[in-house]
C-alpha cells in the first residue's frame, strides 16, 4: 500500500510541476494582459494544489496536512484577487486591446475613479 501511495504522490508532483511550467511558459509567450493573467492564475493554482496533495500523501501525517491547509487557502484567496486587480489596472492604463474583448463592462465607468 505504501508503494502505491508513493507512486500516486510522484504522479501528482509531476502533474503539478508540469502545470506550473505551462503557467510560466504562458507568461512568456502570451501577448496580451488577459491571456497572461489566465496563464498566471489557473494552471499555477491547480499545479500548487496537486503538489500540496502529493506532499500530504507522501508524508502521511495529519500535522503536515494541517500545515498545508493555510497554504492552499491563501493561494485560493490571493491568486484570483491579484489577477483581478492587475487586469483592472491594465484596462485603466489602456494596455488591454479593446478589440479582443468580447464583453466590455467597464467602458462606461472608465473615467470614474
UniProtKB/TrEMBL annotation:
Q: Where are the transmembrane segments?
A: 7-28, 48-73
> Which top-rank group of organisms is this from?
Bacteria
Annotated keywords: Membrane, Transmembrane, Transmembrane helix
Q: Which InterPro entries match?
A: PhaG_MnhG_YufB (IPR005133)
Q: Pfam families of this UniProt entry?
A: PhaG_MnhG_YufB
Identify a single GO molecular function assigned to this protein: sodium:proton antiporter activity
Family membership: Belongs to the CPA3 antiporters (TC 2.A.63) subunit G family.
User: What is the name of the protein in this document?
Assistant: Na+/H+ antiporter subunit G
Amino acid at each position: 500500500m505504501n508503494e502505491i501511495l508513493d507512486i500516486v504522490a510522484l504522479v501528482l508532483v509531476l502533474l503539478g510541476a508540469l502545470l506550473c511550467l505551462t503557467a510560466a511558459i504562458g507568461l512568456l509567450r502570451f501577448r496580451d494582459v488577459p491571456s497572461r493573467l489566465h496563464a498566471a492564475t489557473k494552471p499555477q493554482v491547480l499545479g500548487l494544489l496537486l503538489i500540496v496533495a502529493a506532499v500530504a500523501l507522501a508524508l502521511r501525517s495529519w500535522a503536515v496536512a494541517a500545515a498545508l491547509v493555510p497554504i492552499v487557502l491563501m493561494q485560493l484567496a490571493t491568486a484570483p484577487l491579484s489577477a483581478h486587480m492587475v487586469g483592472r489596472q491594465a484596462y485603466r492604463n489602456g494596455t488591454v486591446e479593446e478589440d479582443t474583448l468580447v464583453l466590455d463592462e467597464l467602458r462606461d465607468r472608465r473615467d470614474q475613479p
